[in-house]
Amino acid sequence: MTSEIATRDDQQAVAVQQAPPAPTSELMEWVESARQANLVAQSLANTSFAGAYRGKPDEITAAILTGQELGLQPMTALKSIDVIQGQPALRAHAMRAIVQAQGHQLELVESDDSHCVMRGRRKGAETWQEVHWDIPRAQRMGLLGKDQWKKQPKTMLVARATGELCRLIASDALHGLPYAAEEVDGYVHGEIAPPKPRLSVAAITTQAPSVAATPAAALADTADQQESAEDGVWDADAVEDSTDWPDAAQPGGAA
Question: How far is CA 109 from CA 103, 130, 139, 215, in A?
Fold first, then answer.
C-alpha cells in the first residue's frame, strides 16, 4: 500500500512539473489592457483624430499600449508616436515631456539655424550633461540634403540634440523607443513617410518609341493633327490615340 501511494505521489509530481506555467497576473492584466485598447482603437480608427493611423485599428492599439508603458494617455500617444518606414519613434517634444515627467531636467541653452546647445541632468544628480549639434555635424552625417533640414534647420537641430540628450541622461524612461521621429530617415512633418518606390526593370529597359518605328497610320494621324492645329483646332483624343506609350512611361506614371 505504501509503495502504491509513493508511486502515485511521484506521478503527480511529474505531472505538475510538465504542466505549462499558469499566466502571471501581470500578463493577464496586460492582455485585458490590450483588449480594452482595441475597443478604443475601433472607435477612433475612422475619425480625424486618428491622424496617420486612420483606418488602422491594429496600429492604434499598438500605439495606445506603447503609450501606456511610457505614461501617455491614449489620445496623447496617437499624436506622439510615429511609424516611419516601419520603425516606431517618439516625436522630440513627446520625448522631452516624458523625460521631464520623470523628474529629469532639460534646458535649451542656445538655438538658431546654425547650431543648438542643450543640457540636462538626471533627477537627483548634480552634474549637467551638455550636447552640441551644428550644421557641420549634420553635414558630416549627410543630413543637409533632406527636405526638412532645408526648410527648418533650427527645429531639426533641436530634435537631434533632444534625442541624444534624453538617451544620455534617461534612457530607462524611453522604454524601447530611444530615437526621436525627427532622427529617423524618411521623417516628413510628423506623419508616416511612404517608402520610396522601387524602380522597375521595365522602366529601366523600355525606351520611348522612335519616329522610325512609328506605324504609318500613326504618322498620318499626326499629320492630320498638325493640319488641325494650323486651323486653330486641336484634337486631344487624336493625340492620346496616336502615341503608343509603353506602360512604364505613360504621362504622369511612375518613372
Answer: 19, 9, 22, 70
- Tens-place pLDDT, residues 30-71: 999 999 999 999 999 999 999 999 999 999 999 999 999 999
Orientation angle between helical segments 25-44 and 57-70, nearest 10 degrees? 130
The number of C-alpha atoms within 13 Å of 182 and in the hemisphere containing its C-beta is 23
Query: Backbone phi, then psi, for 121, in 5-degree steps?
Result: -150, 145
Inter-residue contact 187 to 193 (CB < 8 Å)? yes
- Indicate the pTM of the whole model: 0.62
pLDDT (tens digit per residue) in 181-201: 999 876 765 444 444 455 454
Rounded Cα distance, 171 and 154, in Å:
24
Place of cell 534612457: 171
- Cell readout for 27 is 500578463
